[in-house]
Structure formats: structure tokens, C-alpha cells
Amino acid sequence: MSKNISYLAEKMRDIDICMLMTHTKNGAIAGRPMSNNRQVDYDGDSYFFTWDDAHMVADIGGNSKVALTFQGEKAFAISLEGKAEVIKDKKKFEEHWTPDLDDWFKDGVDTKGLAMIKVHADRAHYWDGEEEGEIKL
């Protein structure tokens, strides 16, 4: 039975860390763990906070095509592909800020050098036990 985005969002609810993969200027694929800040009312968009001088920000500037992977419990995994953009708008930061981020960014949305990455997924491939499928978003 094929799954829908609502089902996947519910399964993603308890997965805080994902891997964000970008393309480096040399063509390599670079991955790093990122927290989704428990924003899992998933509609195809994911948001991550970082520093504006991070390698992934430069990677996205050169090639906005990225991938996200999430690993859940009971053989659930999802791979998302899409386009990323780097946001440096304080009002947008406020829309996605959670108190846990204060541990990383001491001045909150006013932290100098803060950036937010928005990933808009256009394809989701999932594995749920022995079932697998793809959803175009």
C-alpha cells in the first residue's frame, strides 16, 4: 500500500537528526548531521539553522540540489531530494526558532552570522519495513 505525505510526516515526528548532503565545488558529495528542531508538520519544506560561513552554505550557493536522509525506528527510512536556499531574514528566523536553538546561537535570532537553510523537497523515497515507495511532492 502506497503511503502519503501525512503518513510520512507522522513517522518523521520522532526523528530529530537527519543527514543533509550537498555538492561541493569539486563535485564531491558532503554530508553532515542536522537537527530539524522537531518541526515535523511536514509539507515538503525543512528548515535548519547554521552559520553563514559554513561549508554547506557555500555548497548550496554553487549547487542548490541537496538530499536529506532520516532513519527512524522499526526499519523506517526516508530520503528526500530537493532544492535548498539560504535565508538571512530575521523575520523568517523567528518563524522557525525553537528554544533549544539558544544552546547553539547565544543571541537567538539576533546572533551575528546566523543563517537558515530551507530545503524544498520534490521527491521522497521511503522504506517502511519491507515496503518501499516514492512520493512526488
Features:
alpha+beta, 7-stranded antiparallel sheet, single chain, 137 residues, Pnp Oxidase, Chain A
Ends distance: 18 Å
Return residue spans where pLDDT drops below 50 for at least 5 consecutive residues. Answer: none
Q: H/E order of the elements?
A: HEEEHEEHEE
Number of helical segments with 4 or more residues? 3
Tell me the overall shape: globular
Number of strands: 7
Could you explain the architecture of this structure?
Strands 1, 2, 3, 4, 5, 6 and 7 form a seven-stranded antiparallel β-sheet that branches. This protein is of the alpha+beta class and 137 residues long. The chain has one domain: Pnp Oxidase, Chain A. The protein is built from three helices and seven strands, in the order H-E-E-E-H-E-E-H-E-E.
SSE diagram, text form:
Layout: H1 5-12, E1 17-23, E2 29-35, E3 45-51, H2 55-62, E4 65-71, E5 76-87, H3 90-96, E6 114-128, E7 131-136
Antiparallel strand pairs: 1-2, 1-4, 3-6, 4-5, 5-6, 6-7
Give a brief outline of the structure.
The chain is α+β, with helices and mostly antiparallel strands and 137 residues long. Helix content is 17%, strand content 45%. The protein has helices spanning 5-12, 55-62, 90-96, and strands at 17-23, 29-35, 45-51, 65-71, 76-87, 114-128, 131-136.
